[in-house]
């Protein structure tokens, strides 16, 4: 099967959305499918205001339509609600092509955290985007329940996995930092609520792994925390394994893939009882959730590493890929006739 995946989130970004697309595409290719990801790297882009690490495709409609006609996929999946997602949606609707979408990000809450735009406005925008989808893939039951109440339809469960070979417990080494070591890993942006973690009165040392628009501000303000910036998978795995507890202060995530990676590394989770943590920390043996984040941290720190690892092993990428494949909608071959499949254009310079 030829599978076209259209995503505004793509390399060189490092986040849960990109890791999910990459892993699912890799598994599907290994199973004999032809998977093509259409990301911003193929288009002229401009930096996202207030978040220059994210590149937004500039008027991608005509070029994307041309590439999709050349590729002539058997199915189309839209990952994000950005310029590429809307361009692909328009292309499909104008040709009666069925497609699926995914709800990866609580975009309304992110926008509200930045510019205080009413949630009702942003959710209306999101509902319109997903309304024509044959299936909206959503990772967490708590998020599916919330979206159902907000008028979203055709919601499809879509789990997540973890690379248990890359993320695993290791013997603790001398880091030079006082223990316990409390770790946050992820984007450093206002919607992630990282200040709630950094302002906690906790024994030991706080570690922060990741980049983003708040990195400079947080490093300047919180001198007692240790910042590592963006790291590759090998170093991220090492940081997990050297820590004692993973702290997830976000209240706006749909899931939080980093929590599963931390669990696979033997780390217990501390967080708020909100969507994301509620869907990962389903066993009290692997973490603690509390509206008082400090209380959650002090409760979670004594959890057993082996229990955390066993819980992480229930999240498999194979299941994630199978659910994705089952949700896809076939495109009638008559849509592409008499077009012939050809090689795609090279990526455009940004």
Domain module tally = 2
End-to-end Cα distance, whole Å, is 30 Å
State the CATH class of the largest domain: Alpha Beta
The CATH superfamily of the largest domain is Glycogen Phosphorylase B
Q: Spans of 5+ residues with little confidence (pLDDT < 50)?
A: none
Beta-strand residue fraction:
15-25%
Structural class: alpha/beta
Radius of gyration: 21 Å
- The percentage helix is 25-40%
The total count of strands amounts to: 14
Strand order of the largest sheet: 2-1-5-6-7-8
Sheet with the most strands, sense and barrel status: 6 strands, parallel
CATH fold field value of the largest domain: Rossmann fold
CATH architecture of the largest domain: 3-Layer(aba) Sandwich
Query: How many helices?
Result: 14
The mean pLDDT is 93
Overall morphology: globular
Following the backbone from N to C, one meets helices and strands in this order, namely EHEEEHEHEHHEHEEHEHEHEHEHEHHH
Task: Looking at this protein, list some descriptive labels.
Rossmann fold; 17% strand; 6-stranded parallel beta sheet; 2 domains
Q: How would you portray this structure in words?
A:
This protein has 350 residues and is an alpha/beta fold. The chain has 2 domains: 2-161 and 317-335, Rossmann fold (3-Layer(aba) Sandwich), CATH 3.40.50; 181-312, 3-Layer(aba) Sandwich (Rossmann fold), CATH 3.40.50. Helices cover 37% and strands 17% of the residues. It is built from 14 helices and 14 strands. It has a 6-stranded parallel sheet, with helices on both faces. The chain has a 6-stranded parallel sheet with strand order 11-10-9-12-13-14, sandwiched between helices.
